[in-house]
Write a structure and sequence with these properties.
Layout: H1 3-14, H2 24-40, H3 45-59, H4 70-85, E1 100-105, H5 112-125, E2 130-135, H6 142-153, E3 156-158, H7 166-179, E4 184-189, H8 197-210, E5 214-220, H9 225-238, E6 242-246, H10 255-264, E7 268-272, E8 280-282, H11 285-292, H12 298-308, H13 311-322, H14 328-340, H15 344-349, E9 362-363, H16 367-376, H17 380-384, H18 391-401, H19 405-424, E10 438-439
Parallel strand pairs: 1-4, 1-5, 2-3, 2-4, 5-6, 6-7
Antiparallel strand pairs: 7-8, 9-10
Helix pairs in contact: 1-2, 2-3, 3-4, 4-11, 5-6, 7-8, 9-10, 16-18
Length: 440
């Protein structure tokens, strides 16, 4: 999302010259470049100007330590100001009420229904018993979409398919939640292609009737300043409590993310960067600022890994590695857990220093499918002991998986190398390994 902005900011920092002290003379051109970078990223002009004025004020006259260059010091100043611009600190959901009600609002196409399904999964992972409510009675298949999302994440969905009254549906859902011990109710409301009075009256009536603990406004990050203007209009009617940024994995310049907190003075609570149910992250201003400046986000990467990898499975695997019994069944489980973590390029960009180096890297997200197909075409005995694979067995596997003998031989070679490395390193931390499907 922020690739272009990141490159321009890096270029701006490199132009800073001078020794001993940052002053108006040697920082002025750099700050101009930073402002140009922000505006080209579709950041609100007023926000960009106020931001760079603060950077200049903070930087003026700063002494430069012997071990730190002027560019490094200004990077730190910009980082601190970015954190403040993005909200300062993480804002948690407030779940008061029995049940607690979360109202979801936004324009059609912003990703409201998909986010509602993801939020249900997130709440369930936090030990809650959520109920998703289908109150979008206008968009074709909106209710069915929410049911599919709920089924995929095993979260209950309340829907009255014959009703066209969102207020009645919501009230009945609250009654249902109380009877069935659902402690959080997430209400998916209708969107429109543009802001209109009917839409505003309907969502305002839902707010008045439900007294929600949270009203989350869902913003399509790819719409740039239009998203910020829409947020301002919704906020005047709803006084929403938080913002959700969707489609951060798209081809967007990032202006909405950098402008919206300053314009509406409401915290960003979640960011969504894909269609998968798990592709939802709590928003941390400091982590996002680090990613914008190419410093990575190791904390989020570790959290994703912890969420994807089962501790009992890890302990079992460790014992098998110690006995040199790691087989293709184990390998398949590891592949599936890695896939749960999300988009490979996004994950790699969280590693400090890697983001700018992989901007032109083509990572095939479907690369795992061929590997999985070959493993799944093996018999249980072949997965356990790949060394028994002879010519006829290999031919059967490639016929069943739609791959080639060359691809299978490459997989077997890489697997054997990995087993040898695991055996040699069983009592030490294993080094990182490349992902399949990566190429320049």
């Amino acid at each position: 999302m922020f690739d272009n902005l990141q490159r321009k900011l890096e270029k701006a920092f490199k132009t800073l010259k001078g020794q001993g002290k940052i002053n108006d003379l040697n920082v002025a051109e750099t700050v101009k470049e930073i402002r140009r970078a922000l505006i080209s990223a579709d950041v609100n002009f007023k926000v960009a100007k106020e931001f760079t004025d603060k950077v200049l004020e903070e930087a003026r006259g700063k002494n430069v330590l012997t071990a730190v260059s002027p560019g490094q010091l200004l990077t730190k100043i910009v980082y601190d100001e970015l954190v403040l611009l993005l909200g300062g600190q993480q804002s948690e959901l407030k779940l008061s009420g029995s049940p607690a009600v979360i109202l979801i609002a936004g324009l059609q196409g912003s990703g409201k229904t998909t986010f509602t399904g993801k939020l249900g999964r997130f709440l369930k992972s936090q030990g809650k018993n959520p109920l998703l409510v289908a109150c979008d009675v206008y968009r074709p298949a909106a209710r069915e979409q929410l049911k599919v999302l709920g089924s995929a994440t095993e979260v209950k969905v309340f829907s009255e398919d014959q009703s066209t009254d969102p207020l009645s549906i919501a009230r009945n859902a609250i009654a249902f939640a109380k009877l069935n011990n659902h402690n959080v109710v997430v209400v998916d409301t209708a969107g429109r292609t543009s802001v209109d009075q009917q839409m505003m009256d309907e969502i305002a009536a839902l707010k008045k009737a439900l007294s929600p603990a949270e009203i989350l406004f869902v913003v399509d990050s790819m719409t740039g300043q239009d998203a910020v203007n829409t947020a301002r209009t919704f906020n005047q009617v709803l006084d929403f409590t938080g913002v959700v940024l969707t489609k951060l994995d798209g081809d967007t310049r990032g202006g909405a993310a950098l402008s919206i907190k300053s314009v509406v003075n409401k915290p960003i609570k979640f960011v969504s960067n894909g269609e998968k149910p798990e592709a939802l992250d709590v928003f941390y201003p400091d982590r996002m600022a680090g990613r914008i400046l190419g410093k990575g986000d190791v904390v989020t990467l570790v959290e994703k890994a912890q969420a994807a990898f089962d501790e009992e499975e890890a302990a079992r695997l460790s014992k098998k590695i110690a006995k040199n019994n790691f087989d293709f069944d184990d390998f398949l489980i590891q592949l599936q857990q890695i896939k749960k973590m999300g988009n490979m390029k996004d994950l790699m960009a969280m590693i400090p220093g890697v983001g700018s180096k992989i901007k032109d890297l083509d990572i095939d997200e479907n690369a795992f499918k061929g590997i999985e197909a070959m493993i799944q075409s093996m018999t249980p005995a072949e997965r356990a002991k790949p060394e028994i694979l002879n010519g006829s067995r290999k031919q059967r596997i490639v016929n069943g998986s739609g791959r080639t003998i060359q691809e299978l031989n490459k997989l077997l070679t890489q697997f054997n190398q990995m087993r040898q490395m695991m055996k040699a390193m069983q009592n030490r931390k294993m080094p990182g390994m490349g992902f399949p499907g990566m190429r320049r």
